[in-house]
Amino acid sequence: MRIRIVDAFTDRPFSGNPAGVVLLDAFPDDHWLQKVAAEVNLSETAFAHPLPPGGEADWALRWLTPVTEVDMCGHATLATAHVLRTTGRATGTVRFSARCGILAATAEDDGTITMDFPTSTLTAVPAPEGLAKALGADVVSVHDTAAHIGDLLVELRDEETVRSLAPDFAALAGLSDRGVIATAPASDPTRGYDFVSRCFFPRVGIDEDPVTGSAHTALAPFWSARLGRAELTGLQGGARTGIVRTALRGERTLLTGHAVTVIEGELLA
Fold first, then answer.
1. Is the pLDDT of residue 148 over 70?
2. Which of 44, 64, 75, 138 is the most exposed place for a label (fewest CB within 10 A)?
3. What percent of the chain has pLDDT over 70?
4. Residue 44 a catalytic site member
5. Which domains does the chain have, with CATH numbers?
6. Which of 31, 10, 2 minimizes the C-alpha distance to 20?
């Protein structure tokens, strides 16, 4: 069977967030899926198979990190939709049945793909003890992202602070259900983005995720409330970066980005 590595939220190879994509006829046992994800050793590997016509979704979709399965993943969904489009397996809008519900991805005329995800609910909370020390930066505010993704969204002072973070990953692992989203406003919005972020998920085997679609279901309402606009552009990443366009639509958030296939091969095991 074919396996592909797709860089998501970028239009250039070797940037954005790489994801493995494996299209199947049906899901094999969980042990095999986890072994493949560990072998690929990227933030997430997506596994998908077609569903019978006439249902509420077209494909079943699962995402696994090298150590566990996750409830929501944006960049690997984008990567899967890109593979379906470029291989001719789907056109227009494709609907995925996933742990977090039905997700839709629509191929746009400009070559981007727009995904329809549930908006995360934000609740202001006190900063957990040890958070500032683990991040190595003073904290402005902290919000819990609740059930959808289970992260702490942590507002920092400025873009330079976010870019220069060198966290203590072992300390961060015990502070939230999944991970920590560090964010700040763009220092110069004329450069083409409104806010910056970096995402750390050591609890699920990912010290830093380069570009996290699911995190933007929380970043979108957070920054839309502060900047007064429903449509924004986020820049995420440390060594690798990518661009996520967001559009807040109440209980749903639209995430738009490019993707490019960089590796295609045969899975033999």
1. no
2. 138
3. 99
4. yes
5. 2-117+255-266 (3.10.310.10), 123-250 (3.10.310.10)
6. 2
